[in-house]
Protein 1
Amino acid sequence: MRASERVYTSLREDILAWRLLPGDVLSEVEQAERLGVSRTPLREALGRLASDGLAVVGKGRTLVVTDLSADDVRHLFELREALESQAARLAARRRRPGVFESLSQGFAAAPALLTDADPDRAAYYGLVAELDAAIDDAMGSPYLLRSLTALRGHVARARRLAHDNPDRLVRAAHEHQLIAEAIADGDEILSMQVTAVHLRASLVNILASLAHVRPGEHRLAGANQGAAS
């Protein structure tokens, strides 16, 4: 792996996991020393983060980590609904039914995965990732996939703002099951509708979590938590 790619991956993960917080300065000297690279690959990595919208120019032309407010989350979900609803529609049109039937069965059993034995919910979130990948493959739209890929970094970051609510996770599993069933049935309109309902519920959950956090606290609120997507 090229040095710039390694640095980009590391910094991106630090931002998405809230180890680097909104407003943190991405000093070239400090980050190059921390990551053990020269400033040339670091600058390439920082340029990619800026293109992703995860970093912006701050005072003194130094890059800082982008903020993520409640309004930002709302705007993010407006775009997410447009892209993911269309992705579900195309997946329903071009899908292999067996793939989504299997995923539907997986989500039907998902509440059993949401136990204290797996506090990170790794198995559940792995199943969500499988559904995303199946939709990406089935929709067969490279330009839409490119847009979704760019969006998902911001989505992952927004999820960290929400508390890992067990009841919400169970409801989200049922919503994912309905999405998989609609795609398996080839029902384009229903696929779009249940995706929109799911995204609306996810948005409400994140905003409700933000409402219970005092100004400035949101930077740390989700640092070690997941949320239903």
Note: The chain has two domains: 3-65, 70-221.
Protein 2
Amino acid sequence: MSSFQSLNKAEIGVFGGSGFYKFLDNVEEITIETPFGSPSDKYFVGNIGDKKVAFLPRHGRNHSIPPQKINYQANVWGMKQLGVQRIISPCAVGSLQKEIAPGSFMILDQYVDRTNSRIDTFYNGPIATHVSAAEPYSEEMRKLAIEVAEGLKIPFHKQGTVVVIQGPRFSSKSESIWFSKMGWETINMTQYPEVHLAKELELEVLGIALVTDYDCGLVGDVEPVTHEQVMKVFEANLSNLREFLFALIQKLPSSDSAWKGKIISSSRFL
């Protein structure tokens, strides 16, 4: 694997939707080139309270990169090069279970990979390295996120599995019914391989998902989801998401604590 030298520009990273950087103070735009090509956009580095935060719009600032075309390797590598030790990645997901209502949050603990042809490792030889994916999300970070959500009294679920599909299309009704019967809770297009690539760089991951819709096979009277519907629900809940993220960021331990070398992450269209 290629080596790098940390720029020490930020300690917390955010992968997410376009526009989050507008809520940062003293924003600096930084271009990073990686051994794996260019990230989705420039990194926006600024302050939230006393924390230095780096933000990257996963799909580009104009939402021009579809999920199957995102350079996940470059995005994750660039965050680490900036010095980021933790990443929060808010995301939109569809619900696969009736009790998971649109507008609620979910703190993810597992994923199921249903993507194809995505580059999902930094270890392409000559040394064979096998990184465990048994527990993809940080339990310590999940506990902190649960505390924040409980304090803000927002509707949320303490755990859940996200099945990650290739995109850019939504599921067929039969696929959606299958996912629901498997017991998986949510569905999105970008959680994998982002989470595993972060783990390969010895970074920990926290997945926080915003439920925007019921997937098409869930119940008989559910209309097929559209991108416009997803974004409408997401925008309606943006204030809750922003309040949650800011509270969580300010609760994160400083970089010289026992959390050193860790990352937070999550997604569907974000």
Note: The first strand starts at residue 12 and ends at 16.
